[in-house]
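Two proteins follow. First one:
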Amino acid sequence: MRITIHEIQAMKTRGERIPMLTAYDYTTAKALDAAGIPLILVGDSLGMVVLGYASTVPVTLEDMLHHIKAVVRGTERALIVGDLPFLTYATPELALRNAGRLLQEGGCQAVKLEGGAAIAPTVRRLTEAGIPVMGHLGFTPQSVNTLGMHVQAKTAAAAQRLIEDALLLEQAGAFAIVLELIPAPLAQAVTERLRIPTIGIGAGAGCDGQVQVLHDLLGLYTDFVPRHAKQYRRLADEIRAAAGEYADEVRRGAFPTRAHSATMDQAELQEALRRVADRGAMPDANP
């Protein structure tokens, strides 16, 4: 059975920290599910770490569907949240149609969208239709062209707006809210004022949970490590080393060995070669 939004909310009530990670493919999702990660985000961050775009803006709904389907196939227990990409929720009705596709076709159990007061009516429309919604405040990557990539809500006025936005999203029916790149004291203040869980990324330890882009955690994306990320492994180095060893062995003729190859009865091979020789250089297209 999959974890539900109610179980995620109960984790906040119990004071149990909530780990969340991104995944974009079947194999990785399977590993995260086996590790007991309760929340998996198929984020539009795939635009950068999987598709090679400079930002999340070019990611399409079809891109999201493709990757959500793979992640859902690789999991049995985790609650899968799919990002609604840029401009796919510009109106409540457009959001309803596109979010419905992520659940019906993609198979995820919830969607995530960015913004505060302006999208509260959209959140309400989706939740009233039975679509669980995770909010996203602070630095919102789809608005990178207007916000820039830096810590948000550092002034009293901006912090007030963020708190009010969080309360509006909760009132609209969001089951959780991601807080990205905001001051840790502000994130803690928001968390204390909400009944629903907050999931931080670059927002300090006062949130109910944390989310990281898996490629940052594993050292797969680039050599740059964001301030808000912790690199638990450097798998890019391991991949480069393995690929280098493979290429060297192929060039030297050290791979494959007999252990990596199949054999056949020599008599059968000789009979096949005799038959080919008897038929001439060109095989008959209509034997």
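Second one, unrelated to the first:
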Amino acid sequence: MIPLVAYRDNSCDPRKCTVKKLERAGHLRIVKKISQIPRNTLLLDPTAEQALSPADKSVKSITALDCSWEVLDTGLVKSWRIRRALPFLMAANPVNFGRPCKLTSVEALAASLYILGESDRAAEILRCVSWGNRFLEVNKEPLELYVTAKDSTEIVKFQALFL
């Protein structure tokens, strides 16, 4: 089981924060300083040059950045050794429903777990939000395809089918 971590800067409403819900349910650990993010973690970063793929299965942990991107515009995360972007997926959260790539942290972490072969755990963490199952329904076809990819290059080819 891959440990989950989230960097949270308190820029969102704590009552609606999906990371806080995951923490309360015991699914992840929140860190409040970038320096507290494990150095050997796979950092989910939409600006990363490489896509997350099943080839990343051996990661020590997955970290979501639950913050405003203006906060991270300092370049502090650019030094991480393992940074990956998620492939094309549709949001199912109430704020961005149907918008491509506008995922909440719980959606991003669930997608990561699914792609890395932990689909049951992905479904489990999505149960922390009322609309979580909808995310898997909306993205069933791409997720099933992404999980069969051998590497990041193949993920990029597969996502072209949905763009």
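SUMMARY FIELD: Strands lie at 4-8, 29-31, 42-44, 62-66, 82-84. The chain has one domain: 4-159.
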